[in-house]
User: What shape does this take?
Amino acid sequence: MALTEAQTDLRRAHVNGGAGVLVSGIAWLAATFAFLTAGPKTAFFTLFVCGLAIAPVAQLVTKYGFKAPAAGPGKRLEWIGAATVPVLLAGFYVGWLRLEAEPFAAIPIVAIGVGLRYLVFPVMYGGRVFHGLGAAFIAGGAAGLAAPESWALLMTLFLAMAEIGVGSRLVRQWRAAGHAG
Assistant: This one.
């Protein structure tokens, strides 16, 4: 089977990746609210806990919310998502190491890890949207590290809104392609 056929199958089975992006956006939004109400340390731990739930919640939303069919031949591309989890964990680990000394740097560091992971998603799903999302997260994280501390909250909100917007677009494209159950 050609790579493009496997990518088409995976887009069909995973709502173009939109369900996962939406759930991730909600996790970043929860971190934004935690940041606003309790500060960067609480936001970091909120993002970590919510981040652990992204994959299983996205699977439930995909299966029961969108009623997407199971992956067929494209399933063999799913290993890419699992193989890149260490990049996320490294981002959280480095952020955690900096949490005490520079609490406002922790979430931008995680954002860079998320962005790096998004850069491999075009291999799974095809298209360029994940390159853009990855670039937005890397740039947002870099800006969050370079900017004054007060910008970290805005960066977190911006990334949440970016994911919710992109995830919504991916879902609309999936529905327009006639995949909705």
User: Anything to note?
Assistant: The mean pLDDT is 95. The CA atoms of residues 9 and 72 lie 7 Å apart. The chain is about 75% helix and 0% strand.
